[in-house]
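Example A, followed by Example B.
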Amino acid sequence: MSSNAQTATPRTDIATPESASNPFWHDQRKRRIVGDVLSHLLLAVLAVIWVIPIVWVVLESFNKNPGPYNETFFPTEYTLDNYTKLFTDTHILNFPRMFMHTLVISIVVCLISVFFVLCVAFCMSRMRFRFRKSFMNIVLVLGMFPGIMSVVVIYFILKSLGLTQGVGVTVALILVYSAGAGAGFYVMKGYMDTIPMSLDEAAYLDGCTRWQVFTKIIIPVCKPMLVYQALTSFLGPWLDFVMAKAIARTQDNYTVALGLYQMLSREYLNDWFARFAAAAVIISVPIAILFIVMQRFYQESMSGAVKG
């Protein structure tokens, strides 16, 4: 071979059979566009599936036909009578009383539960004492059992205490919903564990007591978790059906969940189905208001944490 001969290098610009047969998939930009389009189409379909039941309930709450049987999927005639009668026609089902009864229970339970969880989480996160880990393990194991297993036992305990009639039902529901709140401290404790102990030590050096450290340092830093705990504590009694059904025996002590269930019974269905939809819309209003208000505190606390 001549010394002037140069070594032949393979050409990379020649299309191979694979790339020539399907050149589209070798363009990353086009593949990304196709992936984005498919992802958005899937999300749009899922959004429609999720939104349709909500839209149907809202429109059904304005349906002029009070019964459940309609010729079309969406109502064709609309009226506000369902909302009006829901609050004025109280001789059969007193929805305003059920609403206020549930609201009072949920607010009280929310306050008690948040306080219990904060106290237990602070003790488990900041204090060291004997049987601490054993207690946490026992609570973890007990939390694996469904609460419905204890409904019968709880009912007979409340009955022996005389809390299954009259005003005692309200007290019983508050006790049942808030008594075990402290056992749900794991999420709050995990958040408190991320707070540096140096903050506590600096506060102790400045002369703060343990209570002052808890109220002036730990609680302000835990605002995001307070939002989460307040929402879950409020939603528990607001949406619960099983425990309320076991304890509340008369309409005077019904919660909104029991009231909505009663509206779908055979004797009320033909006249109360549209009002059932109206009640479903109404009971979502406090949840939406609470979420909007608490979300503002959550955003403020997170922005403050970033600035700090």
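Example B, a separate protein, is given below in the same form.
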Amino acid sequence: MKYKRVVYILMLMVASILIASCQNRPREVLNRKKMERLMYDVYVAEALMENDYQNFNSPDKKEAYIHQVFRAHDVTSAQWDTSLSWYSDRIDIYLRMNDSVKARLKRDREEIDARLAQQTPPPVYDPYAYSGSYIPPHYSFAAPGARNGFRFYLDSTYISSELDGPRFYFAFNVIGIPPVFNSHLSTLLTLTYKDTTLYHYYPITENREYRINASKYIEEDTLSSVNGFVFLQKETNVTPDIQLYDIRMEGESTDDENRFETQAGDTIQQIIP
């Protein structure tokens, strides 16, 4: 019993020291959560540079890229150095932070691998081998022979026969966008009615699902065709390993009308320039 009490007291003392050290953190030192988020992106950036020697073949280029990561977090290199030094002097805290960051990296890697494992990538997409209405279910910008994206065209016959219901949507998921993304990736859906043309534009900047809602009918007008594309405008000669999966164009039933209107309102507000 006495031994357990001594251990308990020692644990309290250690905890008190750790808490006190965190409370005494200088103002110029990043707090733990912000430091962990920054460490995560720095690790990702370093891994990217190691696998892209052509674009990061000098210390100056690597340093410039890391500085872009700092700017994305609104942090200076001096703050990074000071914070790293401060946490390194408190090795117990630093090791726990490092373990937390590595665990997050592992979880994210496993999640990406699991998502890709569920997909069955088709042969290299060749727009000349398919009809204009073909929408690939999976697209990798880094695949051999891949271009800078894909486009499709749906005429009135396709719209009436393949898209059930008065409303429909174009959606896809994105993975592989790095923390600092200098290229320009976007999608555009052009809806042509008899007397009106609507442009639904979306910049793609994050790894998540994107969805554009649309309607076959607007006031006293009917949809006659749909043009769409996803396009990557690269800033370097190296294509980032960005992949789109679960790409689909599907109709909405009338039972989903309320859900559609809510999503469409949010989407239109975001995607119309």
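On Example B: The chain has two domains: 2-118, 130-271.
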